[in-house]
Each structure stands twice: as structure tokens, then as C-alpha cells.
Amino acid sequence: MADHPRSETDARLARKGRTAGLVIAVSMVAWLGAQLIGGWLGLPARYAFLIDFAAIAALIWALVVTWQLWQARGGPRPPNGG
């Protein structure tokens, strides 16, 4: 751990990044579980599409948040650190 205090902006961006990562992980686990349970129960295909669209919506949200984080940190940086 670093000894220096992080700025409020860095803490906010880190929180936002953790939230986006959690949404990605939870949506994928929930999607896989719902697909498995839906197949096991023999649910109609329309429910599978509903589950798919919910997962896609969560992933699009996470993509937008990740884009915002990338832009807030200054976009692409040169590979040599300069």
C-alpha cells in the first residue's frame, strides 16, 4: 500500500472502476446461472432473450463507465511513460 493519501478524484475513479468490474462479474455469473436454470426448467425462448438483453444492458453500462474512466484519466498514454 502507498503511504501517500490519494486525492478525492482518484478515490472516486477507483470506486467507479470497482463498481464497473463488479457489474461485469455479477452480470456474467447471473447470465450463466439464468441460462442454466432456464434450460433445466424448460423456460420458453422469450425468457432466454430477456435474460440476454438484461446482461447486454449491464455490459453496455459497464462499457460506458469504463470509457468515462479512461477519459477522466486522460485517455491513451505513450508506452514509454513520457
TrEMBL record:
The alphabetized UniProt keywords are: Membrane, Transmembrane, Transmembrane helix
Name the InterPro entries on file.
Answer: Uncharacterised_Ynq1
Domain of life from the UniProt record: Bacteria
TM stretches of this protein? 20-41, 47-70
Q: Which Pfam families match?
A: DUF5337
Q: What is this protein called?
A: DUF5337 domain-containing protein
Q: Which organism is it from?
A: Mangrovicoccus algicola
